[in-house]
From TrEMBL:
Organism: Cupriavidus gilardii J11
CDD domains: PBP2_LTTR_aromatics_like
Domain called HTH lysR-type: residue spans: 2-59
Protein's recorded name: DNA-binding transcriptional LysR family regulator
Domain of life: Bacteria
One example GO MF annotation: DNA binding
Upper taxonomic lineage: Bacteria, Pseudomonadati, Pseudomonadota, Betaproteobacteria, Burkholderiales
Length: 299
């Protein structure tokens, strides 16, 4: 019986037409690869490759074997896929809408904790912009969605998970009065970069307008982009500053520094929303788990 591993080695060499590249692709050294190919040739009783000091090419027998070897390997790989697919089909699936920033702030720890408790549940994540955070629920594309509050939309129920203060992301080259925090007065004359929300009341500009007026600070102008990624890229490029939620500081980017405000800053509230008519016990279980998770001091 032909060793399946040797068939994989044969296909790799045939496709790479080079023993060293094939060995690198397979994650083994070249000598054992050459030995396995020689063993396969001895087993079949024919040479499969023509070898020179500079090239490797298939013999006629090698050309005849290649399509059959590929088909055999595909069928073997498919056996594993069939088993995995059957396991997945037996699992419940929870579709969750997330904002882009959630993926690198609070979400990884939450999902890791959930997976330990409910390994029987398959999670599907749907990324969306803040402007679309409620649409994924109303269209039925998601069972739950993490949202920025406030949310005023009929047919949705929102459970608040946590509130956190805004920090300020500034260029690393920007010198501030203190290294551990920044005063709102130091934002005078700088461009503010922000992003919209699903509702005008939740946009960065709206949240910070009254705060800046209260402290008699006037920014140079305001630049709005669609996502926090774009805002932070502009900050790194020394185009201005952008307010970010405190959990954002976990994402370290070249050219960007995160500082808390010396004054009491605006707050960002994050909730989890579902359709009001939903009777999914699994969705409610995830909501309850999330509420408990964010009650821990070190979430």
């Amino acid at each position: 019986m032909i060793d399946v591993r040797r068939l994989r080695y044969f296909v790799a060499v045939a496709e790479e037409q080079h023993f060293s590249r094939a060995a690198e692709r397979l994650g083994i050294s070249q000598p054992p690869l050459s030995e396995h190919i020689h063993a396969l040739e001895r087993e079949l009783g024919v040479p499969l490759f023509q070898r020179t000091t500079r090239s490797v090419s298939l013999t006629e027998d090698g050309l005849n074997l290649l399509p059959h070897a590929r088909r055999i390997l595909r069928d073997i790989d498919r056996c594993g896929e069939v088993i995995r697919d059957a396991r997945w089909q037996k699992m419940s699936t929870l579709r969750i809408g997330i904002l882009h920033a959630h993926a690198y702030t609070f979400l990884p720890r939450l999902l890791a904790a959930w997976a330990k408790q409910r390994p029987d549940v398959r999670l599907s994540l749907l990324e969306h912009a803040t402007q679309d955070q409620t649409t994924v629920l109303s269209t039925g594309d998601a069972d739950l969605a993490f949202v920025r509050e406030p949310v005023h939309e009929a047919g949705l129920t929102v459970t608040r998970l946590f509130s956190e203060p805004y920090w300020i992301a500034v260029p690393e080259s920007w010198h501030t009065g203190r290294k551990d925090r920044i005063s709102v007065t130091e934002l005078q004359g700088w461009r503010m970069i922000g992003f919209p929300s699903h509702h005008a009341s939740g946009s960065t500009r709206t949240l910070f307008r009254d705060f800046l007026i209260k402290h008699k600070v006037k920014t140079a102008d305001f630049l709005q982009v669609r996502t926090m990624h774009a805002a932070l890229a502009l900050v790194a490029g020394e185009q201005g500053f952008t307010p970010v939620p405190r959990s954002q500081r976990r994402l370290m980017l070249h050219g960007v520094r995160y500082l808390p405000l010396a004054e009491t800053p605006p707050q960002l509230s994050v909730g989890i929303a579902c359709r009001s008519q939903s009777d999914s016990a699994l969705a409610q279980s995830f909501i309850d788990f999330s509420v408990a998770h964010f009650q821990q001091p070190d979430w």
